[in-house]
Structure formats: structure tokens, C-alpha cells
Specification:
With 298 residues, the protein is of the alpha/beta class. Helices cover 51% and strands 13% of the residues. The radius of gyration is 23 Å and the shape is globular. The mean pLDDT is 96.
Length: 298
Amino acid sequence: MQLGMVGLGRMGANMSLRLLRGGHDVAVYDRSPVAAQALAKEGATPADSLADLVAALATPRHVWIMVPSGAPVNETIEALTPLLAKGDAIIDGGNSNYHDTVARGETLATNGIYYLDAGTSGGIWGLENGYCLMIGGEREIFERARPIFDTLAPPGGYEYMGPSGAGHYVKMVHNGIEYGLLQAYAEGFELLDASAYEFDLQRIAALWGKGSVVRSWLLELAERALANDPELAAIKGFVEDSGEGRWTVQEAIDRDVPATVLTYALFARFRSRQSESFGAKLIAALRQEFGGHQVKKE
């Protein structure tokens, strides 16, 4: 099947390569020509512009965009819309806010262009292991694009979630859960590290991966990270968030769902970015004021 891929970062490039290996005809475009040329060596058709990308595809076209959420998605869709024809489809595989997805789908429909939202999980390991895909939009177009999903996902690794926005909604909640899981592992291993015992954390991670109720792929990755750097000395404890955790918490607030773990995990990421917390200083000052407790001076 033919597909155009826009955005050749860590995910887009590997997804394109997996599709090429699966026998698909893939045209690729990125703002960096170097990225497109690298995939040309693997059999992709490089495009110098979005117009060239669209011209390389037969109708009905399928264009997968793998760019950062927000303005980059809007700009890409706005640039593609006049180039596409009625019956063509755009597939958004990034982590877009589902509210934005619904609005984009409605706008594209006025031009006769279909819009699928494909929440994509798998990270840099997806090239070899496959990607988990959570897909929303028109069922008819989902069925039309099945050969793409069959190649990108492992067996049983993709599902139709419902109408426009449903795929990105499920991916949003998926990432919110991920925040909570990461925070639970982080706190547990920090407690082990702080104990009076000389634990080998890498060995514990390996042990828990063998039949334990807390075994998971994340635990396997923890074992790998600890094997490479047992003290994690080369890593600064600064944790970014790319938006999905915030959207999950906001959705929980809007729907009166007590998502306490997910909310705390998001706030813990904010705390990781503070070299010194003013709030913690205030607590120390107040303890000194009401109880005469000692404070540590700068």
C-alpha cells in the first residue's frame, strides 16, 4: 500500500522503515532533507516539499503526520489541505489533544478529506517490536487503511476505538497511566536505594521481572538502565511532560473522576524541575516559627 509520512523524528523514521520492510511504498518528507535522504537509502521516495509528497501518491491518498502536538499539527494540516483531493485521508499519529482532533476532523470533512487519529505507543522499540495503535475516526477509512496498521502493529496490536477523537482519548489515558506507573517504580527504587542495606537494584529489577506481580516492560527497561549506570550518575533528575498527563488530569477534573495517583505523578514531575522549592522553604520557615524547629541555612 502507498503512504506518505510527514515528520521523520524518532518515531516517524522508524515507522517508515517498518512499513518499507513490510513491503509498502512510502514517500517521506521532513523539514530536514537529511532525514528523508537517509530513508531513501532504505527504499523510500524522498520529497522536497509537501506538494512533492502528495504528488508521489496515487488517489485515494493516505498521509500520516508524525509531528509535535499543537501548532505543528495545525500548520501541517493547513498546508496539506489544498494539496489533497476529496476522499484522501490524513492520519495523525502524534499525541494530539482529542478536543483538537474532533475540531480538525470536522474542518477537514468540509473539504471531503478524512481524518483518522491514531494514538501510537511503542517508542524507539517499535521498529522491531511493533507499535500499539489506538485509532479513531471514520470506520470506513480505518478499514481502508488496515494494511498500514497490520504492518505497524504486532499481532493484535491495534483496534478501532470509535469516532473522531476516540483514538487520541484512549492514548491520553494510556499516557496518564504511564505517569503513575513510572512514579510508583521511581518511589520504590528510591526507597531501596535509601535503605540501610546494600541492595543491587539492577538484580532486584531482574528478579521482579520473573513471575512477580509488578513485572512489566517498564521494569525490564529499569533493569537495562541500572545495568548501564547503577547510580544513574549521568542523568539529571529533571523530568519533562509532553502534555498528555496534563490533559488526563484535566479530563478527570472535568468528569469528577478521582484520579489521585495520576495527578500526583504529574505534580511530581513539576517538582523534579525545581533546583530549590520555595514552597519547601516556606514550610521549613513556618515549622521554625511555630515550633522552634531548626532550619538549614543556604
